[in-house]
Design a protein that fits this description.
179 residues, four-stranded mixed β-sheet, 14% strand
Amino acid sequence: MAELSTIARPYAEALFEAVRNDAQGLESWSGVLSLLAQVSSLPDVQEAMGDPRLNDAQRAQLLTGLVPQALPDQARNLVALVVENGRTQALPQVAEQFEILRNRLEGTALAQITSAFPLDEAQVASLLQGLERKFGLKLKSQVTVDPALIGGVRVAVGDHVLDTSVQARLASLRDTLAA
């Protein structure tokens, strides 16, 4: 089976082109896709999508009915299309691909910051300022806390990863000693 991101890309590109100049704005569409991704990722929903007793229209209605807001026509069409093609498991990747296209259009990128300890807003802003100089892009941050890092931060911007965590340093030291 093909990689889910490969399956998701044409859906995201088609939707992006269809709504690029929509009055709602791309940020609104990102929210809609995020909701669809969250709902489609639920184990009960995934099980229902595989239920042979339901037809495609019932599956699409189930999925759209679980979203806590009214969906635009293009979103309903996307849901119907992915259900018809048996690709509902790719909706989270469709949302990711849409975000990549949106960021590219806006000249921004997502900085996924993972810290060993919670960061306050001033620390995040300072970190983003340095990262923006390094990458030459306006960055949006997504901050998570992972105590397994022991200390420091790990930042992923696109394909680039900067890992200054204690965990990474210990792994590097282990590899050096093992060699």
